[in-house]
Amino acid sequence: MNRMRYECGVFHTRYASEMGLRPRPLQRIRLVLIAAAIVVYPFVANGYWLDLANQVAIATVGAIGLNILVGYTGQISLGQGAFMAIGAYSAGLLTLQAGLPWAVGIPVACCITAAAGAFFGLPSLRLKGLYLAIATLAAQEIVEWLMTHWTWLTGGTEALVLAAPRLFGARMNSPFVFYWLGAALAAGTALFAANLFRSRMGRAFVAVRDQDIAASVIGVDVARTKLLAFATSSFLVGLAGAMIAFYRNIVSWERFTLETSVVYLAMIIVGGLGSVRGSFLGAALITLLPALINNVGRAVQETAPQAAGLLPHVQHAVFGLVIIVFLIFEPRGLSKLWGNVKDYFHVWPFAYRKG
Amino acid sequence: MTGGHPPGRIPPTATLFLLLAAACGGGADRADDPDAPIKVGAIFDLTGPTADVGTDYADGVRGFVDWTNRQGGIEGRPIELIYQDYAYQVDRAEQLYGQFVGEGAVIFMGWGTGDTEALQLRIAEDEIPFSSASLSHVLGDPAEAPYNFLVATSYSDQFRIALDWIARNHAPDNPDAGAPVVALMHNASPFGLSPARQGGEAFAAARGIDLSLYPMPRGAVDFTAEFSRIRQSGARYIVFQNTSGPAAVALRNARSLGIEATFICLNWCSNAQLVELAGEAAEGVMGTMPYAPLTMDVPGTRVIRDYLASQGETIAGKTNAYTQGWWTFAVFAEAMRQVLAAGGDLTGANIRATMETFADFDMGGVTVPITFTPDDHLGAKGLRIYRVEDGAWQPVTDFIQAPDPA
Q1: Which residues of chain B have a CB within 8 Å of the CB of A156?
Q2: Domains (range + CATH), chain A
Q3: Mind listing the pLDDT tens digit for each residue in B284-341?
Q4: Which fold has domain B38-155+298-382?
Q5: Per-residue model confidence as pLDDT tens digits over A124-157
Q6: Does residue B101 belong to the interface with chain A, where contact is any CB pair within 8 Å?
Q7: Domain covering B157-294+386-401 in this structure, CATH number
Q8: Among the four residues A59, A184, B146, B207, which has the most C-beta atoms within 10 Å?
Q9: CA nearest B284: which of B292, B274, B294?
Q10: Chain A contact set for B2 (CB, 8 A)
């Protein structure tokens, strides 16, 4: 009984069981615990904490999307904000103008974003690294310009106000109701991404990242793979944008600026490039950090009002500091830190480290 | 296959969730205690793109809270202002609003147009009387935004007053002068577009005014392109709907390009800061200013000056945004006082109902008297027009009412 719980004590009799997503029983126990925590959480949390959880869920979907492109396929993108905007505006306009139900609007919006992503990914066929980053920056600027100037479509700088869609009869913009949709979509996205990199296509993404010439030698169609990566990534990023549209009932360009792109890059860098777990951890940290600093600041406000005056500036500094600290001390991010903790207990009481 | 192996994987990520769940105890403690402080939520822009006027507004709100608490609070209950900087970010505003209301804030002092519009549905659901520092006309319609109150002239009304003034003063002796050509240079945001979209364009069309819009990109340091288009359009009147920082940049630009026009600043750039930033270039600029500058001697500014003097401060460096913060809160404070004096509970519905009875509430001469009704939450309909003369804003009209919408 006990033996079965350990990694080397698991005896697989079929290939299928060995190749499962969660091959070990302990991992499955963990999965059940997480699922239970997700289900229990909304009943113990108040509106504020539910709202934060929803923001984390949306950021997780967006960060996983970006990580597929940047972390797994190695195509640097500064166009995250643009793709989220395309998702949000498509979802908003499809339900508002075309009268589609939200459940139809979301997947259509994701497909539109995927197409846009593939289009703006075309420069990646010729460009790499910093040059590609600048090309995607152009995408960001173009979409931002279109958002604010295509008044007939987007309402220009005026915000697009959506009617609150209903989920099982309740208004979706309530944190409690949206939580279930957000959790389901975030979990679904994580499952999809984890499986993607066990498939041929996903491995082709990684091969392109590691060495594109070698990848093409072993038969990977590099051009197709890059565009597929852009499309897949944008699909999920568009989903995150559509989630924001329906949760907040309002779409405005101010939410999808270059700053958004940079914040999402920070999430996956802090969380861990090329890691689904890291995408979640990074999204959670970057979303919760300002809230944490806020609360610390308010605690200080009463005892040291002078220090509290500096707080708004401290917030910006801490944000930058966190990124620099991670780049220096753990470039592989929170995901690797978590791995280190596990390894430590794994080999305890011996000092030997894996890998 | 036996023994000797270190313990296996610990059941992990769950701990993170449990920690998160554990961290969120507490919850709302609604102030039922008759002596408990009255909690008021607020978001201010202290570091974002509108921090130039946002900081002064925040100081005004805080000054009023401090002044009230020194006087013994509202019916003996002190005000506890819960506030944070939100850097003009909609997400941050939503997060802080949820947090403060969860902590028992009975009213909320908002700021930007974008975030106020984003919060509109939640404000109505939570029944939180909400002060819109954003003076967007639509937020004054109780059918759309039942708990939003505008304690100043809306942007659209300000713009209509400006357009009306232009129409009446445009070459009155020369019938061949043609229609006035007006350029609205606005912040590229819902805030910037609000005066034109919510009545300004229709009014201009009805009065035969040729109006075109020129967005001012955020963070721009040069408006040469905009001004060369304005010059081509032949506009003789340029209206700014932006904060004082960008407007001052544009004014300096315009002067160095030799643009001959009358400049009119709406609410957030008609202040002392504009004069300070634009210097000589601000001379002769007109302003539709719902709130009197602190230099003007009326009862409503005297109370502020006395308070500042008691704190060892002066009005130096403080603008009419300070007056606006102070007196906006004063209206809500009066509503809460009346609710408590009548023995009522401090609920959103009660405060709203009390505010809707305000008729010609005296603002000490800093604005026109404030009136709210159940059908109209636009507190003020008129204002004075000012002009910069020798580096100071001087009134050129008495209170004038906004013309009827076209």
Answers
A1: 193
A2: 45-347 (1.10.3470)
A3: 999 998 888 888 889 999 999 999 999 888 888 888 889 999 999 999 999 999 999 9
A4: Rossmann fold (3.40.50)
A5: 988 888 999 999 999 999 998 888 778 778 776 6
A6: yes
A7: 3.40.50.2300
A8: A59
A9: B274
A10: 3
